[in-house]
């Protein structure tokens, strides 16, 4: 028999939508938590409409962050619907929400109201800019926060415009931060019975996620320069062209640099005092990059990949997303899992970045809107007649089985 997952027995009321909150709750679900996703009848999570592409009528965006959950589609403007969700939160170990400031409190679902009935609750609020950031009601989507946090300003070619990262990375960082905060608070709550209120924002997640760049800016008092696919303080550490494709080389210390020179059959670059140490290589970046590029462009990528891997130099081919997934899977990294979805059929999904070796996580398909409404409301103590009445008047949506 397999061991219980780390969060087996933990119930999460997920009142969040889009990416940061749902990503956090999916990670909790991957660790065994029971996650109940509360959605609006008729439309559900915003990402259900963020297509194409679609699979079985479901947007790929929505499918990416909602596995291992159950969906309760209920109208919070209806007194019975609101009462049901209040009951759900009263019995939950964790509540996650990203309503606009003030709205959640008016619904009686804010931390103050929930903790009166549920003192041990771990309550996590996700926002774009955080409760102290003025103006308090300012909405924040990833691209806005990438701009405001300096992430966009630090990304892109030196002579070109600022660029956003290709994925909504501030949401992903926020989801990870939310999950970490929730896990820490759950650990204490189990030991003491005391709950915790956690606030996590996209802008704080992005600012902290800039790590060395923020410290560099504080130390120098100047803005870090955009440097494209290179590194501000390590050389060579960037993308290079070869005869047929781009590769990335990351010689992060002097030993790796000397190995690189040997693999390239360029002992002159190892002996040159201008390149003897990393600070010298940073100073003479342009000349060194030119020399390495001139050598790399004489042979195809596979030739250099073989030599550099054998030499122990960190190197990688610049791949597309699908190519990267298929390559990782082919090389033995069990990155993909397949689940049977009620409308999409067999659906491939990407595993979380962590592995629980003793207790492989469950995998259930991202739910249809309202797929589990009846069973969840029954678990909350509502009678079949009452649920029928709520479905009939549109307060509750139950997906067709």
From TrEMBL:
Per the record, the domain of life is Bacteria
Q: What is its EC number?
A: 2.8.3.-
Transferase in keyword set: yes
Do the record's keywords include Protein transport?
Answer: no
List the InterPro entries: CoA-transferase_III_domain, CoA-Trfase_fam_III, CoA-Trfase_III_dom3_sf, CoA-Trfase_III_dom_1_sf
Q: Which keywords belong to this entry? A: Transferase
Tell me which positions the record assigns to the signal sequence.
Answer: none
Q: Name one GO molecular function term.
A: transferase activity
Full protein name: CoA transferase
Which organism does this sequence originate in? Nocardiopsis lambiniae
């Amino acid at each position: 028999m397999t061991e219980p997952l780390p969060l087996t027995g933990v119930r999460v009321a997920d009142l969040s939508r889009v990416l940061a909150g749902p990503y956090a709750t999916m990670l909790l679900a991957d660790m065994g938590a029971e996650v109940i996703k509360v959605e609006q009848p008729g439309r559900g999570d915003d990402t259900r409409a963020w297509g194409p592409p679609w699979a079985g009528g479901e947007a790929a965006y929505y499918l990416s962050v909602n596995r291992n959950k159950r969906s309760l589609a209920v109208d919070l403007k209806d007194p019975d619907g609101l009462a049901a969700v209040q009951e759900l939160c009263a019995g939950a170990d964790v509540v996650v929400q990203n309503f606009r400031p003030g709205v959640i409190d008016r619904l009686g679902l804010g931390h103050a109201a929930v903790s009166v009935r549920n003192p041990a609750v771990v309550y996590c609020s996700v926002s774009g800019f955080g409760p102290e950031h003025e103006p308090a009601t300012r909405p924040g989507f990833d691209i806005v926060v990438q701009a405001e946090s300096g992430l966009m300003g630090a990304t892109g070619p030196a002579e070109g415009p600022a660029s956003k990262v290709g994925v909504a990375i501030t949401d992903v960082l926020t989801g990870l931060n939310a999950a970490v905060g929730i896990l820490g608070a759950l650990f204490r709550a189990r030991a003491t019975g005391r709950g915790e209120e956690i606030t996590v924002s996209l802008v704080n997640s992005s600012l902290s996620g800039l790590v060395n760049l923020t410290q560099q800016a504080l130390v120098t008092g100047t803005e870090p320069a955009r440097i494209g696919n290179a590194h501000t303080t390590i050389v060579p550490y960037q993308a290079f062209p070869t005869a047929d494709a781009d590769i990335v080389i990351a010689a992060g210390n002097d030993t790796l640099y000397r190995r690189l020179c040997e693999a390239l059959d360029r002992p002159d670059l190892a002996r040159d005092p201008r390149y003897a140490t990393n600070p010298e290589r940073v100073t003479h970046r342009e000349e060194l990059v030119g020399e390495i590029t001139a050598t790399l462009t004489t042979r195809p990528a596979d030739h250099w990949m073989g030599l550099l891997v054998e030499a122990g130099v960190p190197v990688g081919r610049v791949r597309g997303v699908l190519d990267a997934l298929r390559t990782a899977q082919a090389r033995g990294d069990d990155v993909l899992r397949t689940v049977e979805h009620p409308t999409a059929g067999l659906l491939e999904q990407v595993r979380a970045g962590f592995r629980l070796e003793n207790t492989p996580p469950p995998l259930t398909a991202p739910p249809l809107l309202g797929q589990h409404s009846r069973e969840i409301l029954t678990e909350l103590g509502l009678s079949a007649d009452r649920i029928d009445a709520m479905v009939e008047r549109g307060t509750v949506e139950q997906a067709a089985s």
